[in-house]
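Dear colleague,

As promised, here are the two records you asked about, laid out in our usual form so they can be pasted straight into your sheet.

NAME FIELD: protein one
SEQUENCE, THEN STRUCTURE:
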Amino acid sequence: MKDLRNLSKKRIELHEIQKYLNVKDYLELVKIITTLINDGVLKPIKRSKLNGKKPALHNRYSIIQEDEDNSKYVEELSYGLNIRLDKTYYMKNIEKYKKDRAFVLALSKFLDEKIELLKTQTSVNERSFQIWGREKFLGKEGGRRILKNLNLKEAFLNIYYTTEPLAYYSYHKNSPQKILIIENKDTFYSMRMKLIKYGGTIFGEEIATLIYGGGKNIYKTFKDFEFCVEPYLLDKSNEILYLGDLDYEGIIIYEGVHEIFKDNFTIKPFVKGYESMIDKYIKEKFVLPNTKIGQNRNIGELFIREFSKEYRKNIMNILESDKYIPQEILNISDF
């Protein structure tokens, strides 16, 4: 007789059982159903109605799967894995262990045979390939979940996360110098073109180096600033200026960049740049775009205090009217 447990379903209708087992005689069907219930293969769904025949049968049944022998997995967890791995979670969730087993065993083997490699700090993707032969597994494909299940901290693997290379252009390499961080790509390209063609002043400021920030991605990149730039940019006598969109988000980005650099460099907003954005908006009577919905508006005084009373008023009027000035209001002609 065919085994109903081979069907990929948990519940089954009476007529489906009859068809699957090819039983035409009803009394024979009753006998088979009774046997399957007694053998623990089927369980009547009591809230389903009886079929109205004699003897009566329920119209629907649950298919009870055989209990699988998991003793080999329990033994493997108990005695076969590296002692640094906490097996508690998987001992309580054997089915999940069976799904993750290949990855757990690969990690265990690495700790057994190559643990000395952890003495050298390695990028997350390189370490992932060392252990699992898949460079994205640790960062993006479930590696963190498996570490958590095994109560193993990422720090134990002695990894670091890489950032995007820093894009910058230097008109000259003397120190001290003024470095201008620009939030948006278009403004970075236009200013770079200006410096290349016409020299190193922008709005009367002697700017030697332009750095492309890239919006919120700036935080990760600048935390590795000392590894991304040449030594002349690390001179602590350099002054760092920042220019972004004139909106809440741009101001908050500046506050974050200030926090990163404040202990090693003098850092301020590029006041002349912002003033030029405001002056152009007023002079040419631009209709400003609306502030993006959901922006964090929790700004401090760090940015606004660098401006004169008149410009502070203009900035607050723009922000409080739910408008903003994008950097792109300026172009190479303005510079």
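NAME FIELD: protein two
SEQUENCE, THEN STRUCTURE:
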Amino acid sequence: MKTTVPDQQETTGVPILSSQNQGWENILVEQFQHPAGEGWCHFSDDRAINLSLAPRPVSLMQIQGGKTYTALYGKGDISVTPAKMPFFARWDRDDRYLQIRVASGFMKRVASEVLERNFEHLELLAQFQTRDPQLEAIAMLLLAELQQENLGGKLYVESLANLLAVHLLRFYFATQPRVAIYESGLTQRQLLQVLEYINEYLSQQIIKLADLANLLGMSQFHFSHLFKRSLGIAPHQYLLQQRVERAKQLLKQTDRSIIDIAFLCGFNSHSHLSKQFRQLTGITPKAYRAQ
């Protein structure tokens, strides 16, 4: 039976949640919910990962690269779409999914940093329906961060974006290179250099992963890996701990308002400080000051 495809007209739904205005760089993360329907989609310069969040399986038909695919899509099923590859999709019931779009320039930069080679053409292999627990875990962490309105901070999102890019390079490209993982951590001198930098700029809301990695002349992926091996926690976790520790000092040693202390410690609001403070200490800043 021949499949009838309507004239090509791109259909873009309005996401329930989007990282568009949260200042995330290199990746766009959006959560969608659509009633039964159909539409064309085309990503001009982004790789796209779609993770199904549907509570009930959805019958999906997709035409991509001259081939027709059909499957019952359930929660956890993943599709991977290369840049510049339009596709048509038709689904039979309410569909919910998370879409992550990764900029091509970012993929090339990560490839050159991590593999120490220049890649002019990175060929991503299309996947219609696959299961990948690691990729799903990264996607769900990004979704959680999206739902909490960037509560973990930009450093955390950048770490997840680099982890995602390296995972794609290792498992979803035509040439799957071996990514070297160093067993040792940072040297004492390197670690002190990074910790002093974080302490000096702690009041700034944005401390970029790239800035920390550039201090030591290494890729963001390898820096994150070595930092965690050295201290046992990720860079974004250490940064959060230090922000809260400085807030503790200011709460006890000064009479500044909690909103002022929030800004002095790099938090973007009173509520942001309160959530993170309570998460790490079990009490609110106000209760801590009263002790």
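A couple of things worth noting about protein two: The two ends are 74 Å apart (CA to CA). Strands lie at 17-18, 27-34, 37-41, 46-52, 58-64, 67-73, 78-81, 87-91, 95-103, 127-130.

Best,
R.
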